[in-house]
Write a structure and sequence with these properties.
Mean pLDDT: 86
Strand order of the largest sheet: 4-3-2-1-6-5
Structural class: alpha+beta
Radius of gyration: 26 Å
Keywords: Coiled coil
Oligomer: single chain
Number of strands: 6
Largest sheet: 6 strands, mixed
Number of domains: 2
C-alpha cells in the first residue's frame, strides 16, 4: 500500500497562485478610475482575468468582461487597457439612464403630491395645520431628491474630468503616430495602435456627450 503515498507520475497537483484584485482601485488607461474591484474570475491555466466585478463611487456593482483585454495587476491597483473603454461606456449608459429615469419618477410623484395637497386645501378637505405639516414632509423628500441629483452630478463630472485627461494623453499618442504615418514610417504594429486610439477617442467623445446630456437632465429634474 506504499504506492498510495505518491501521486501518479505527470499528475502532480500544484496550487496556482493567482493575483489578488479584491479591494484594489480599477483604472482604464492608467487614468480613468472606474471603481474598486470586488472580485475577479480567472482562467487558472493562463492566469488570465476573464471578468472583474467593480463597485463604483455610487455603490453600484457591475461586471466588466476582460477576456480579450490586456490587464495589469499590481499590489496597489488594477489597470485595464484602453480597449475596455467601449465596454465601460455601454455599462455606464445603461446605469446613468436607469438612475435618471428613477429620479424623473421621484420628481413626478413629488409634483403630483404637491398638486393633490393643494387641491385638498382648496376643497376644504384639510385645514392649514395638516397642509403645513404635509408640505414639510414633501419638502424633506424634495431635499433628498435634490441631494441625490447633486451627488450623481458630482460623480458624473468626476468621470468627465478623468476622461478629458485620458483624451489628452491619447491625443499626444495620436499626433505622434499620425506624424509617422505622413512620413511613411508607420509599421504594422503602430498602425494597429493608431486604429485603436482613434476608436477609443470616438468612445471618449460619445461618453463625454452622455455626461453633458446627463448633467443637463439632472438640473432639469432637480
Amino acid at each position: 500500500m506504499i504506492w498510495r503515498l505518491f501521486p501518479p507520475l505527470g499528475k502532480e497537483k500544484r496550487d496556482v497562485k493567482l493575483p489578488v484584485v479584491r479591494g484594489k482601485p480599477v483604472y482604464i488607461g492608467g487614468v480613468l478610475l472606474i471603481g474598486v474591484a470586488e472580485k475577479g474570475e480567472f482562467d487558472v491555466k493562463r492566469k488570465k482575468l476573464l471578468s472583474i466585478e467593480i463597485k463604483d463611487a455610487n455603490g453600484q456593482s457591475y461586471i466588466l468582461d476582460t477576456s480579450n483585454i490586456k490587464v495589469k495587476i499590481t499590489r496597489e491597483y488594477v489597470d485595464l487597457d484602453i480597449a475596455a473603454l467601449p465596454k465601460f461606456f455601454e455599462i455606464k449608459v445603461r446605469e446613468v439612464n436607469k438612475m435618471i429615469e428613477e429620479l424623473k419618477k421621484s420628481r413626478g410623484e413629488l409634483d403630483k403630491s404637491y398638486h393633490k395637497l393643494e387641491e385638498a386645501l382648496l376643497k376644504g378637505v384639510i385645514g392649514m395645520d395638516v397642509y403645513n405639516e404635509q408640505i414639510k414632509r414633501l419638502q424633506e423628500r424634495e431635499k433628498r431628491l435634490r441631494n441625490a441629483c447633486i451627488d450623481m452630478e458630482k460623480s458624473i463630472a468626476s468621470v468627465g474630468q478623468s476622461l478629458n485627461q485620458l483624451k489628452l494623453e491619447l491625443e499626444k499618442k495620436r499626433e505622434r503616430l499620425e506624424a509617422k504615418r505622413l512620413l511613411d514610417k508607420l509599421d504594422e504594429t503602430e498602425a494597429e495602435e493608431l486604429g485603436k486610439i482613434l476608436s477609443t477617442l470616438g468612445s471618449i467623445n460619445a461618453l463625454s456627450h452622455l455626461i453633458t446630456s446627463s448633467i443637463i437632465q439632472l438640473r432639469l429634474i432637480c
